[in-house]
Design brief:
Blueprint: E1 3-6, E2 10-17, E3 32-39, H1 41-49, E4 53-56, H2 64-75, E5 79-80, E6 92-97, E7 103-108, H3 117-126, E8 132-136, H4 137-141, H5 145-154, E9 161-165, H6 175-184, E10 187-191, H7 192-199, H8 204-214, E11 220-224, E12 230-233, E13 246-248, H9 261-274, H10 279-294, H11 305-312, H12 316-323
Parallel strand pairs: 1-4, 1-8, 2-6, 4-5, 8-9, 9-10, 10-11
Antiparallel strand pairs: 2-3, 6-7, 11-12, 12-13
Helix pairs in contact: 1-9, 5-6, 7-8, 9-10, 11-12
Length: 348
């Protein structure tokens, strides 16, 4: 079985529900607050609950936020590859969720923003063939972490699958760091706003196609469209060709809290892909996992396999999930640079 390795941050999330954002210089009374582990934690949880081993390859500090992160990781059976840092605490995000479910973030990083060459080398030594490495744009915008993570990603061996989520700060990533990451990316997963910023196209399907053309042959793109599901531009051929992007419909639900939905989508997609499912089936499963997640309060609300199958009901995808709980290693790049992934196939 493949592992999901998060080469990113797990930080504390202070979630505050508010009626609406205050005006500049104003104030607003929150209706509910919650302090939980967040950041890449949600992606790790989503993959782990579907049966994929998830490991954390980022930094965690000494202090209340670091303690919270480690306790949350341990509760989900997620192992940390790097030891505790003694020179500071883990960072945190304030996530303000308004009455319409829209999220606004303010982030303050801690030791998680201070990787070293030794940290990166330690992670490299612990990678295994067939691993799925998840990288976030948050890491690339950090002055210290960015160059290290860009070089780390560009040098990953062909038997490791790289998934890159550019994150909301995509416009702030230096091109000198972004270009090598995109050149090595096997799967690019972003929301519609991030896709527009990267491609210049507002239409998600058009953006997905344009972004696939920016990646290496054999890479694929997912553009997440919230309640509308996602657009899938499946991996193309070695000559750069590929089928037209496919709209993968979402699952209608009453959203309660959208915080962490994108992370649930990414984690579920990679888990199912790593278990041998084709990209279209993995994308449908990811849509279902994200839909399930937004019906529950809290950032780490991705379903386990039993919950996901119950949510799907009589959808044929539920039977496919029940029939395959593992599989061959994820298709990655061959040493000749061509993709080992199969074509977009199979009815979900």
């Amino acid at each position: 079985m493949s592992r999901l390795v998060l080469a990113g941050n797990v930080i504390a999330d202070l979630v505050i529900e508010i009626p609406a954002l205050p005006e500049r210089g104003g104030d607003v009374i929150g209706t509910r607050t919650e302090l939980t582990a967040g950041g890449g934690f949600n992606t790790l949880v989503a993959a782990g609950r579907l049966g994929t081993e998830a490991v954390f390859a980022g930094l965690h500090g000494t202090g209340p936020y670091g303690d919270l992160v480690r306790e949350a990781l341990a509760a989900e059976g997620i192992r940390a590859l790097l030891p505790v840092r003694e020179d500071g605490d883990t960072g945190f995000t304030v996530a303000m969720v308004d009455a319409g479910g829209e999220r606004t973030f303010v982030t303050g990083f801690g030791v998680d923003a201070r990787l070293t060459e030794a940290d990166v080398a330690s992670v490299e030594r612990q990678l295994r063939p067939g691993d799925l490495v998840q990288l976030s744009g948050y890491g690339l915008v950090m002055p210290v972490n960015g160059p290290l993570l860009s070089r780390f990603t560009a040098a990953l061996p062909a038997d490791v699958t790289v998934c890159f989520d550019p994150a909301p700060l995509v416009a702030d990533i230096p091109q000198a760091l972004l270009a090598p990451v995109l050149a090595r990316t096997d799967w690019l997963s972003c929301n519609a706003r991030e896709a527009r910023l990267l491609s210049g196209h507002a239409d998600p399907g058009t953006a997905a196609k344009a972004l696939r053309e920016r990646l290496a042959p054999g890479a694929g793109v997912l553009v997440r469209a919230d309640k509308d599901g996602c657009w899938l531009a499946a991996p193309g051929s070695a000559d750069g060709g590929g089928s037209e992007p496919v709209h993968v419909p979402g699952f209608p639900v009453r959203a309660v809290d959208s915080n962490g939905a994108g992370d649930a989508h990414v984690g579920a997609f990679l888990a199912l892909l790593g278990q041998g499912f084709d990209p279209l089936t993995a994308a449908r499963g990811a849509n279902a996992a994200a839909a399930y997640a937004v019906t529950r309060r809290g950032p780490a609300t991705a379903p386990d396999r039993t919950e996901l199958m119950a949510f799907l009901g009589d959808d044929p995808l539920a039977q496919r999930l029940a029939g395959r709980r593992g599989g061959s290693r994820p298709a990655g790049r061959r040493t000749d640079g061509r993709s080992e992934r199969g074509p977009l196939s199979g009815s979900p």
